[in-house]
Design a protein that fits this description.
Layout lengths: L2 H13 L3 H27 L3 E14 L10 E12 L2 E5 L8 E3 L4 H7 L9 E6 L7 E2 L5 H22 L2
Length: 166
Amino acid sequence: MDSFAAVYRTFELAASGDGKSLALLAAIYVSAVMLSSAIYLRLIWHWPSTTGQLIRQEVATFGGKEYVQSQQNYLAKVEYTYEVDGQRYTGNRLSPWKVMASANARIVLQAQMQGIDIDSAGGVTVYYNPRKPTKSYLIRSGPIKQTVTLLAGVAPLIAYAWYFGS
């Protein structure tokens, strides 16, 4: 059976509800997402930095207003300005890791914002894409988070091979 026929057959089996085929496609999808994320985090690690000014930093509500406060969702919001090669930019990205939390877990967002590098003069370190300086972050993911993301990308394929034996 050639490669195309094998792939086609896998999709046919998945469409008919075959658990092994569904698990394989799910493992491939999750692995592709996580491995591409690990590569992106590694690229960001090598971006240059500049000093910017923090305009706004808050934990804000996300989505509609909930009547039960514990069901309200929150996210971190930032706004900052920075300059690259004489050009001024405004950024609003905190980290490549998007975190949304419930009211009970919003302390996670506050902890994430502690990762912003603020100097004694009030300036912040801004990491920017040298090819597209409009894209920037205040926090980049270090080697440990990169490794965790990489392992999360490999784990579904290992789990599939272990569980299904091939």
